[in-house]
Amino acid sequence: MAELLRNPNVLLKARRELAETIGKGKQVEESDISRLPYLQAIIKETTRLHPAVPLLLPRRAGADTEVCGFTVPEGAQVLVNAWAIGRDPSIWEMPNCFMPERFLESEIDVKGRDFELIPFGGGRRICPGLPLAMRMLHLMLGSLINCFDWKLEDGVTPENMDMDEKFGITLQKAEPLRAIPFLLS
Ligand code: HEM
């Protein structure tokens, strides 16, 4: 929601897609998701820039392992920085910009096979809640923007919004977003 309010053009495009595909003011249903590619791209772009579990779960090397010329010794604890991978300029064009369009022509998905985008981790410990989480994110975000108009508080503009992040096991917005909903008739 914060990225959408900071990027009104993206919000407008998402609302247009929802209005044309399911009709303005309607809640999104599970069967609608596959027909909403722009909403899907928004969710992927959000997980790229703001992965909810930025360092995944810690791993331990089972044996001495060579990775990109570095030796990871047996027994070492390994943290995978999904947050940094999502913003790596050698992988992503304009990495700090919120641009869902980058996923419209791309096969990259969050299911743990494309290592440039791993908000749910990967391998044997991949998040088992992924299918539920992905459905819920589309249903919730899609319904919030299709049923309500949203405004920022007085004095807050897309340009001066505070987007600082608070790092921990999970990633949070340092300043919670305060947005005002207006029910669409
Ligand atoms: C946006 C929502 C969510 C995100 C971004 C997320 C992300 C993650 C990540 C990154 C991991 C660590 C995976 C790894 O290190 O390879 C994880 C593990 C886990 N997640 Fe999620 N998760 C989400 C929602 C859920 C939901 C809805 C459930 C349950 C209904 C769930 C249950 C779990 C469990 C049980 C683990 C531990 C798996 C293991 O250690 O074997 N998660 N999640």
TrEMBL record:
Heme binds at residue 127. Its cofactor is heme. InterPro entries: Cyt_P450 (IPR001128), Cyt_P450_CS (IPR017972), Cyt_P450_E_grp-I (IPR002401), Cyt_P450_sf (IPR036396). Keywords: Heme, Iron, Metal-binding, Monooxygenase, Oxidoreductase. GO terms for molecular function: heme binding; iron ion binding; monooxygenase activity; oxidoreductase activity, acting on paired donors, with incorporation or reduction of molecular oxygen. The keyword Transcription does not apply. PROSITE patterns: CYTOCHROME_P450. The keyword Membrane does not apply. PANTHER family: CYTOCHROME P450 FAMILY PROTEIN, EXPRESSED, CYTOCHROME P450, FAMILY 76, SUBFAMILY C, POLYPEPTIDE 5-RELATED. Belongs to the cytochrome P450 family. This is Cytochrome P450.
